[in-house]
Amino acid sequence: MDWLAQRVSAVILGSYAVFMVVYLLASSDLTFEQWQGLFGQFWFKIYTLAALVALVAHIWVGMWTVATDYVKNAWSRFIVLGVIALTNFSYFIIGFSAVWGV
Questions:
Q1: What's the CATH architecture for 2-100?
Q2: How far apart are CA 18 and CA 34, in angstroms?
Q3: Which of 25, 61, 98, 100 has its CA 20 to 30 A from that of 52?
Q4: What is the pTM of this model?
Q5: What is one Pfam family matched by this protein (predicted)?
Q6: What is the per-residue pLDDT across 58-89, written as a single tens digit (0 to 9) for each?
Q7: At what angle do helices 2-26 and 42-70 cross, to 10 degrees?
């Protein structure tokens, strides 16, 4: 399951990155109003939220794998994974608030 989550999240993040690069290259004189217009569209908010969830999942699976492979002490691994989980949760809350204006 972790393998699948890592691959699916990578595809979502890759498609989001490609979209953003193409959008930025296609908009030579990008104004704040255009940028606000893009992020104000419902479909793009959903796409950004999907990318945010994919980012959090991708980080968690990758860092969990690294921690379980290289941090041998159970308490140290628990602390490392706890810090990663709290950081990921913070990223999600801040990103969600930024996208949805909560």
A1: Up-down Bundle (1.20)
A2: 18
A3: 25
A4: 0.88
A5: Sdh_cyt
A6: 999 999 999 999 999 999 999 999 999 999 99
A7: 130
What is the distance between the alpha carbons of residues 65 and 28, in angstroms, rounded to a whole number?
A: 41
- The answer to whether the annotation marks 47 as part of a ligand binding site is no
Chain centroid, CA 24 distance in Å = 19
Q: 48 and 39 in contact (C-beta within 8 Å)?
A: yes
Residue (of 56, 19, 57) closest to 41 by Cα position = 19
Residues 13-69: pLDDT tens digits?
A: 999 999 999 999 998 888 999 999 999 999 999 999 999 999 999 999 999 999 999
